[in-house]
Amino acid sequence: MVLCLLAAGTLLLGYLNKARCTGPSFDEWGRSGPNYQERSYADVCYSDIQNLWIGRDIDRHVFPYVHGGIDSDGSLYGGVVEYPVLTGLLIWLGAFFVHTDAGFLLASALLMAPFGLAVAWWLGRLSRWRALLWALGPPLVFYAFHNWDLPVVACAVAAVYVMHRNDPPPDRAALRRRATWAGVLLGLGFAVKIYPAIFVLPLALYVLTSGSGRDWRGAARVVGAAAGTAVLVNVPFMIAGFEGWLASFEFQSRRQVDLSTNSIWFWGFRQWAGSDSFQDAMGIISPALVLLSFAIACWAGWWLRSRTGTFPWVQVSAAMLCGFLLLHKVHSPQYTLWLLPFFALVHVRWGWIVAYLLADAAMYVGVFRWLHLITSGESSGIYDGFTAQALMIGVWGRAALLVGLFIAFLSARSAVDPPPRAPSPVPREAGAL
């Protein structure tokens, strides 16, 4: 309860930070004024929630996906949003009774705050005091209401909680039941923001190798539960409006490597970002490297299992997420919320955590202050002031730390692992000094 109260205070600070961009006046579309865009960058209070009030028919209260699609230029229309269906449904609910971007931000915050509190509760039960990293973490202030990410984080953490909320299951049947429910939660996570689906493989490998022999049936149940849940959630939207449903996935597949993606591919190769050949290459290179990082993480987990007897599925999941964040062509700022629970769930050294949070803060403040310099016509080069320098420190510092964390997560003990046993004392021989 203490963790939940602390998290509630942090969530309130997160809302107040974003609410600085709302009002005091509103135009005929419910957009805050005056100078909404300039204020959102200059005051570092930008949020996708407020920004997308206009442009996706959210302000018109159009039910998502059913009547929409995507134009040849990549523009979405007819209520389609660029997110999976459960996030689209959450967006529609947040806009249902409101008529301004300020009301939309508040309603969305009220809808998502319980998920943030639930994460604090589950992490507290799993990792005790380390859950303060979530409840009091600066990323919760920066990103809790930056986008619609609290529900998907809740799905991922809930899956770990279902698996390890008490002592390990006493038999294979109990483990299968827990893992099946965890698979359902990861499938729901896919229907919210995709990324929890990558944890299905390490969970299945954990079930496969637990106990004596190989539990192929249990592993298959995990995969089937996750896939079946994702399909069941998506099918009604596919039937109601297949073109609109498909458009959300097509939008992401067409997404270019540009400033909005904020990934190493843009910052390292932005001089080529306008080239079609570069964009086509990124469509192959980025996912291929992401999949390679997944394979390396799972292989490392399999090797560790041969030494410890247990497949470290939580640590492998954390490492896979590091590979995704580093190598995917999109690295939105709020993705830090995805990684933050793993700092509580895996006992990595505090230096890694502090360094990553500092780099993330530098990136967060730096990118919006840098955008303010660009939109206001001021000098924004790397030699023109600390703003661009802080942004580069954040971007590349965070990238280097993700490489290190990939290894650190795999070599660390998780909060759900049994504590290491102290070595038994060696009895002295008679007459020994």
TrEMBL record:
<dbReference type="InterPro" id="IPR016570">
    <property type="entry name" value="UCP010361"/>
</dbReference>
<dbReference type="InterPro" id="IPR018584">
    <property type="entry name" value="GT87"/>
</dbReference>
<keyword id="KW-0808">Transferase</keyword>
<comment type="similarity">
    <text>Belongs to the glycosyltransferase 87 family.</text>
</comment>
<feature type="transmembrane region" description="Helical">
    <location>
        <begin position="104"/>
        <end position="123"/>
    </location>
</feature>
<feature type="transmembrane region" description="Helical">
    <location>
        <begin position="386"/>
        <end position="411"/>
    </location>
</feature>
<dbReference type="Pfam" id="PF09594">
    <property type="entry name" value="GT87"/>
</dbReference>
<feature type="transmembrane region" description="Helical">
    <location>
        <begin position="284"/>
        <end position="304"/>
    </location>
</feature>
<feature type="transmembrane region" description="Helical">
    <location>
        <begin position="184"/>
        <end position="208"/>
    </location>
</feature>
<keyword id="KW-1133">Transmembrane helix</keyword>
<keyword id="KW-0472">Membrane</keyword>
<feature type="transmembrane region" description="Helical">
    <location>
        <begin position="220"/>
        <end position="246"/>
    </location>
</feature>
<feature type="transmembrane region" description="Helical">
    <location>
        <begin position="143"/>
        <end position="163"/>
    </location>
</feature>
<feature type="transmembrane region" description="Helical">
    <location>
        <begin position="339"/>
        <end position="366"/>
    </location>
</feature>
<feature type="transmembrane region" description="Helical">
    <location>
        <begin position="310"/>
        <end position="327"/>
    </location>
</feature>
<keyword id="KW-1003">Cell membrane</keyword>
<feature type="transmembrane region" description="Helical">
    <location>
        <begin position="76"/>
        <end position="97"/>
    </location>
</feature>
<protein>
    <recommendedName>
        <fullName>DUF2029 domain-containing protein</fullName>
    </recommendedName>
</protein>
<keyword id="KW-0812">Transmembrane</keyword>
